[in-house]
Design a protein that fits this description.
Length: 412
C-alpha cells in the first residue's frame, strides 16, 4: 500500500519538486511540461488605481475609461454565477457589500496554443464590505484539489489534480480562456468556500507591456538571487529560454561562460524586465522557500505597480492612463458581475484607491507537501490557511490578521 505523508518545509528541506503534467493520472508519467510562473494580478489593482483622481477629474477619466471597453476582452455574462439562471443585477449599479475577485496568470510562449496553458499564478482579492480594505491571497500552483466536471469542455472531472490544471481543462474543446476561467473559479470556489463576483485572466506578455508603460517599479530584494532565465551575455542581461531549473541554468552558465544574472540585495527602481525576472524566480529564492517565495515576490510586485501607477505624475497624465489601459487590454480577459459594464465596475473599485492592500501568505509561506512512497505529489493547505479563507467568507479578515500576524507578507 502506498505510504502517504504531509511534510512541512523543514521536513522537505525546502526542495522545489517537479510538477505533474495537467493531463490526469495517465499523463503524469509523461515528460513534464515547462512550468512558468505567471501573474494575473493587475486587473483589479489597475482599476482601483485609475480611480485615484480627485473630484472633477472623474468626468474626464470616464472618457478615458471608455477606451477600456474596447481594449479588454470581456467573458460571456454569468460564468461566475453561483446558480445558473440567477437574476442579474440591474445595469449601472455598483457592487454592494464585501466581494471577491479571482485573478489568474498564464504564460504562453511564441508558437504555443493560447489555450494550452496552466494558471501558474492564482490569487484571490477580498474587498471588505466598507470597500476601504483589500486583502490579496495566493494559492500554490501545486495544490492538490478536486476539479469538478465541466461539460462545456467535455471534462469529466478529477477527484485529485493540481489546481493549475483546472484552467487548462476548461479551455479545451473550444472553451478558450472563458472556459478556463469558469472551471478555475468553480475549483477555487469549491476549495475555499468563496463566491467570486469578478475574475480576470492576464497573459505574461501583456503584464510585461504594462510595466514597460509604467517605466519602472521600486522593489526590495531580501537576499542575492540568481536568475535561471537571464544571463549576462557580452555584458548585457539577456533572456535565455528553456531553462527548467537551477541545475540546468548553472550547467548552461558553466558551458558558455555566460554568468547567471544576480538580483543584488537591496532596494531600488527596477526596469520592467528586471522586476518581472526577480518575481519569476523560485528555484533560487533565499531560504529555499521555492514557489512560496515566488508568491511573496509576485504580491510585492503588484503592490509596487499599484503604488507607481497611483503616483501623481501618472494619474495627472491622461495620455499615460490611456497607454496603460491599452497595454493591459492586449492580453486580458475580464469577467464582470452580471449586469455590469467595465466602467461601472471600475467606479465600484474607486474607493480602493485609498485603501491599504494587505498581502497574505498561505501555509505561512512554507511547503505543506504530500509525499507518497517518497515521491512528491503536491501541496495541501494548513489549518491556519483554511481558517483564513473562512474569515474571508464571513468578511472577518481584519480580525483574523490581528490574531494571526504571521500570515502577513511584509516584503517591500
Amino acid at each position: 500500500m502506498a505510504q502517504s505523508s504531509t511534510l512541512d518545509r523543514d521536513e522537505h528541506h525546502g526542495a522545489v519538486p517537479r510538477q505533474r503534467d495537467a493531463g490526469g493520472s495517465s499523463a503524469r508519467k509523461k515528460k513534464r511540461k515547462r512550468g512558468a510562473p505567471l501573474w494575473a494580478k493587475l486587473t483589479v489593482t489597475f482599476g482601483a488605481v485609475l480611480m485615484m483622481v480627485a473630484g472633477g477629474a472623474l468626468i474626464g477619466l470616464r472618457t478615458v475609461i471608455g477606451d477600456l471597453e474596447g481594449s479588454i476582452q470581456v467573458a460571456e455574462p454569468g460564468i461566475l454565477e453561483a446558480e445558473p439562471g440567477a437574476p442579474a443585477e440591474p445595469a449601472g449599479r455598483a457592487l454592494d457589500g464585501a466581494f471577491n475577485v479571482l485573478l489568474l496568470g498564464i504564460d504562453t510562449r511564441k508558437g504555443q496554443d493560447l489555450n494550452d496553458a496552466r494558471s501558474d499564478t492564482i490569487m484571490v482579492l477580498h474587498v471588505n464590505a466598507a470597500h476601504d480594505q483589500a486583502y490579496l491571497m495566493s494559492l500554490p500552483r501545486d495544490l492538490l484539489v478536486e476539479i469538478p466536471e465541466f461539460k462545456k469542455a467535455k471534462y469529466p472531472g478529477d477527484s485529485e489534480d493540481l489546481i493549475n490544471a483546472a484552467f487548462f481543462h476548461g479551455a479545451q474543446h473550444g472553451g478558450g480562456w472563458s472556459g478556463g476561467l469558469e472551471l478555475a473559479a468553480k475549483t477555487v470556489g469549491k476549495l475555499t468556500g468563496l463566491k467570486f463576483q469578478s475574475a480576470a485572466v492576464i497573459d505574461f506578455g501583456g503584464f510585461r507591456t504594462v510595466i514597460d508603460a509604467l517605466g519602472s517599479v521600486y522593489m526590495c530584494v531580501e537576499a542575492d538571487t540568481k536568475s535561471i532565465h537571464t544571463f549576462v551575455v557580452n555584458g548585457t542581461p539577456t533572456y535565455v529560454p528553456k531553462m527548467s531549473d537551477g541545475a540546468e541554468a548553472a550547467n548552461y552558465a558553466s558551458r558558455t561562460g555566460n554568468k547567471q544574472y544576480v538580483h543584488k540585495k537591496g532596494c531600488r527602481e527596477m526596469a520592467g524586465w528586471e522586476a518581472l525576472d526577480f518575481a519569476r524566480q523560485r528555484y533560487t529564492v533565499a531560504d529555499g522557500a521555492g514557489d512560496y517565495g515566488r508568491q511573496r515576490h509576485q504580491q510585492q510586485l503588484i503592490k509596487a505597480m499599484a503604488k507607481k501607477a497611483g503616483s501623481a505624475g501618472v494619474l495627472a497624465d491622461f495620455g499615460k492612463v490611456r497607454e496603460l489601459i491599452q497595454a493591459a487590454g492586449k492580453s486580458m480577459l475580464l469577467s464582470l458581475p452580471a449586469g455590469m459594464d467595465v466602467t461601472d465596475f471600475l467606479f465600484t473599485m474607486k474607493d480602493l484607491a485609498s485603501a491599504d492592500l494587505v498581502l497574505l501568505k498561505t501555509n505561512a509561506g512554507y511547503y505543506k507537501s504530500v509525499i507518497v512512497n517518497g515521491d512528491y505529489k503536491g501541496e495541501r493547505l494548513d489549518k491556519t490557511t483554511e481558517e483564513m479563507f473562512r474569515a474571508a467568507k464571513s468578511d472577518k479578515l481584519g480580525n483574523f490578521v490581528l490574531i494571526n500576524p504571521q500570515v502577513v507578507n511584509n516584503e517591500k
